[in-house]
Write a structure and sequence with these properties.
binds magnesium ion, five-stranded antiparallel beta sheet, globular, 342 residues, binds adenosine-5'-triphosphate, single chain, alpha+beta, 42% helix
Length: 342
């Protein structure tokens, strides 16, 4: 139960986000392989203790749709969170590696995320707050689970800049300053599903006012030139974050981004700002323009499902529980039938 750095042998680096990095480690005493998330936080000791207490909730989450936690500990100046290692990584990595994710897998992702969201909310009254492809993980058993959910309010406050990258998945009501609700997560799910199904982020400056065209382009291939698109997407997301930093309103913790890391990255990337859509433009688009859609020939049910996630009015948007009874989830029987006939 008491994890410490001395017992954890680093095997490899798994990835890096805005708020820290994740490494694959082996817990020597037990031989258990884990993913260790290292978060640098800028907080007083009392706040750190509070964060650790809050992270305990994560330990009590037991669901096949939630990445399990082995525990968290302080390793000054970091907080380390040890969690279940998911050997296929996250869906952003998956689509960047294999290209567009097939619709049957997209359905599975939708199903597991909704189940995870429902579990977090119904059992623990937790709203995830950070649904995006990099927080949806997969393993070779075919399990799909959520990680990085907002268990700790203090942690969220202490690493506010971490949530900047997330802003591109933010719902219109959140952008306009409303409180988070479980329905904001449903919006982010809709955006994430389009992203993995198309193999690219659904918003771009080229799309403005001409959305359908792009989304109908179903035979966009995933060959080499897609790579540069993806790099461009990453750049755009980050550049966007820095734009936001420049015009930040300190009132909203999401917008107070004046930390050194951001500044450094801003300097590094200043050269690539040209042409990219700024986060301000993007937010304007999210709030003012019709929501993006997933239009794939012969896939009306999937289209309707994504439309339901991306209803702009949160009052009219469905909850995870309501979405779980969508017709697209009757497919389970179909797969079983297909498997049997084969
Ligand atoms: P952000 O910091 O903006 O939230 P992120 O989600 O990509 O972005 P991290 O949460 O630090 O950043 O994760 C970095 C990467 O580590 C992820 O993209 C994912 O691929 C990998 N990763 C995270 N948790 C696990 C895990 N439990 N098992 C395997 N890989 C993981
Ligand atoms: Mg993450």
């Amino acid at each position: 139960a008491d994890l410490k750095d001395a017992d954890l042998r680093v095997l490899e680096e798994l990835g890096q986000g805005n708020g820290g990095s994740v490494v694959k480690v082996e817990h020597s005493p037990t031989g258990t392989v884990m993913a260790k998330k290292i978060v640098l936080i800028d907080a007083k000791p009392s706040i750190r203790k509070q964060i650790l207490r809050e992270l305990q909730i994560m330990h009590s989450c037991r669901s096949p749709y939630i990445v399990s936690s082995y525990g968290a500990f302080l390793s000054e100046p970091n907080i380390c969170i040890c969690m279940e290692f998911m050997d296929k990584g996250s869906f952003d990595g998956i689509y960047k590696r294999i290209g567009r994710v097939s619709l049957s897998v997209v359905r599975q992702v939708a199903y597991c995320v909704l189940q995870g969201l429902r579990y977090l909310y119904d059992v623990h009254r937790i709203i995830h707050r950070d649904i995006k492809p990099s927080n949806i993980l997969c393993n070779s058993l075919g399990e799909i689970k959520l990680c990085d959910f907002g268990v700790s309010g203090e942690l969220i406050n202490s690493i506010a800049h971490t949530f900047v990258g997330t802003s591109v998945y933010m719902s219109p009501e959140r952008i306009q300053g409303a409180e988070y609700s479980v329905k904001s997560d449903v919006w982010s799910l809709g955006i994430s599903l389009i992203e993995i199904a198309l193999g690219r982020f659904p918003f771009s400056s080229d799309d403005t006012g001409d959305d359908d065209d792009d989304e109908n382009d179903s035979d966009l291939d995933n060959s080499s030139d897609n790579d540069s698109d993806l790099d461009d997407l990453e750049r755009r997301k980050r550049v966007g974050a820095e734009d936001l930093a420049r015009t930040a309103t300190p009132r909203d913790s999401l917008l107070s981004l004046t930390n050194n890391k951001t500044k450094r990255r801003k300097q590094r990337q200043r050269g690539s700002v040209g042409g990219a859509m700024s986060i301000i433009e993007l937010m304007h688009q999210i709030v003012k323009e019709p929501a993006p859609r997933l239009v794939l020939p012969g896939e009306e049910e999937a289209e309707e499902f994504v439309d339901a996630c991306l209803v702009k009015d949160p009052e009219a948007r469905k909850t995870p529980g309501q979405l779980l009874v969508s017709p697209i989830f009757f497919w389970g029987c179909k797969v079983w039938w297909e498997v049997c006939v084969d």
